[in-house]
Amino acid sequence: MIPESLQGISRMFKIKIKVTLDSGSTTKQGIVMRGGKKIVRKDEYRETSSICLMNEEDMKFIGVVESGNVKLETDVGSVVLKVVKGDCPRGLVFVPKGPWVNSVIDADTFESGSPHFKGMTAEVQATDKRVLEVDELLRAYKPGE
Amino acid sequence: MIYREVTCPVCGCGCDDIEVEVEDNTIKNVKDACGIGKSKFGEIGSLDRVLKPMKREGKDFVEISWGEAIDAAAKILVEADHPLIYGFSENSCEAMKVGIDIAERIRGFVDSQSSHCHGLTIIAEQRTGLPSCTLGMVMNYADLIIYWGSNAMDSHPRHMSRFSTYPRGIYRKQGRRDRKIVVLDVRKTCTAKIANHFIQIEPNKDFELISALRIALDGGEIKQEKIAGVTWEEIKKLAEMMKNCEYGVTFVGLGLTHSAGKYNNIDNLFSLAKKLNDYTRFSVIPMRGHYNVAGFNEVMTWRSGYPFAVDYFRGYPRYNPGETSVIDMLARKEVDAMLSISADPGAHFPRKCVERMAEIPLISIEVARTPTTELAELIIPGVISGMESEATYYRLDNVPLTAKKFLDPPFTQTSSDEKTLRMIYNRIVELQEGRV
User: CA-CA distances (angstroms) from residue B114 to B297, B308, B325, B419?
Assistant: First the structure.
């Protein structure tokens, strides 16, 4: 157990932990995705897809509370996500599939055709930055427009 | 008017028992569909519905005529050196055939979502063979259901209630009480919460666990205390449960194909199922995600001899997943134009692939605006297969079925994605033969 008093210190020193990144489907996100609402209801898309399910002990360790934001970083890049307490074992985070998590997924398929959508190594730390909207994420891909 | 036995074109379950109430060509009520299915029926009237073809001009899109859009799409594809035709998992088999015809005609490259989902299961099928059965057999015979790396409650919400867990079958008259449900996953998912047994595996260690199960079946011993985070005692218990069941089925999810080991995990699982058939009846069924993703593998196989990731650049079909698969081709920047149909690669591809998509001319045939349409040069309205046009589709157990049409599309220029693709194909032929 991590004492409450140490959580602020973890946050102050921006303590990072190494985690295994798992991405996949959720019903809530599927309802937004399949209903053709990704752009018109971008707030719903953000709320259902830019979340990071974490173990409660891991949350305490990096000093983040439920609905706080974390930076998820891999060799490919980083993305800010909202934390949700989930049934994950320590050292595992789950993010619903979508443009947020895919911006940190490596395209290397190990000559199989499919990337590591599950099982990539990542680092998580608390952050004060906000979660980007889907159009802001896309602007990074087409900056000239 | 009430339409009964309507098909839900969302996941691989392809539920064909939906009731839809239609009034003035709009949906008033949907019965018996899951939350995701109901949402899909709502897509028909989505505020984001693409109703007219659009072309990018700077930051914005401007409306163009259907003739201009078909001409622009054909020109992009004809002028490219190595164009990519991608998508199809939510289209009819008829539309897939025309899409493959386009790829062959322009010596392009064709692939679908199966490439980065259960394509690896297909590779394992080619190596080991698929010990499978239909969902009807699961419902009537199976007494042991295993979900391995699959969270069916979230990805296929009616799978357990229609086919595997709750329905009463010929030999499973008490439904749920006649069956044991085992879930193997890296985290305690919604599916795990309603299972009889939940076995938590360490991430990327499925191959080790399957191998240990094979050893346990052969009566071997392992000195190691835990394998993949599971105790040897627990593994032996599971092996006994598998051996002693009357009819076992493993539903395999993307947890195995998307993690380390890739198709070797599935290959090992198929070998385990084959071994179990020495003692009892045991099958494996992949949990295909989209309602007609299995159909693409069928159509692609009878058209080219290969199930997915086919490259026509040399004038004949070439298949080498890892080289000719969509993710690899985009990441290596080998693709110089792309047509995406009923797919949203902009939201579901890794960063490097989306970066390439943003650089090249991208044609998006979509029902509603998505991250892909926002990156596209050209947007062409899509028709919802199975709702606004009739469709032949393959359920996740590779059973071909027909989806009925119950509404007209909100435009008159095309009546199906098959017709839209046929218009592009005909224009490509005209351009190539100089009949401009």
Answer: 8, 7, 10, 23
Structure confidence at residue A143 (pLDDT): 67
0.90 exceeded by pTM? yes
The pLDDT of residue B357 is 97
Model confidence at B397, pLDDT cuts 50, 70, 90, reads very high
pLDDT one-digit tens code per residue, B226-250: 999 999 999 999 999 999 999 999 9
The matching CATH number, chosen from 3.40.50.620, 3.40.50.12780, 3.40.50.1400, 3.40.50.740, for B48-117+292-384+411-432 is: 3.40.50.740
Cα of A17 to nearest chain B Cα, Å: 16
Q: B126-151 burial string, b = 16+ CB within 10 Å, else e?
A: eebebbbbbbebbbebbbbbbbbbbb
What does the DSSP assignment read for A14-31? T--EEEEEEEE--HHHHH
> Would you give the DSSP letter of residue B433?
T
Check CB contact under 8 Å for B321 and A112: yes
CA of A82 vs chain B CAs: smallest distance (Å): 18
Which letter does DSSP use for residue B290 in this model?
A: B
Give backbone dihedrals phi and psi of A29, rounded to 5 degrees, phi first: -70, -35
Which is nearest to B203 in space by CA: B259, B270, B278, B145?
A: B259
Structure tokens at B375: 């990156």
Q: A103 vs B367: CB contact, 8 Å cut-off?
A: no
A145 pLDDT higher than 60: no
Residue of A nearest to B9 (CA): A34
Q: Are B197 and B185 in contact (CB under 8 A)?
A: no
User: Residue with structure tokens 């005529």?
Assistant: B65
List chain B residues with CB under 8 Å of A98. Answer: 347-348
Alpha helices in B80-223 (DSSP H): 93-105, 119-128, 135-141, 152-155, 159, 190-193, 206-217
Please identify which residue in the block is written with the tokens 């010596």: B107
Q: How far apart are CA B33 and CA B332, in angstroms?
A: 41
Widest Cα–Cα separation across chain A: 49
**CATH number at B120-286:** 3.40.228.10
> What residue spans define the domains of chain B?
48-117+292-384+411-432, 120-286
Domains belonging to chain A, first-starting first, are 4-141 (2.40.40.20)
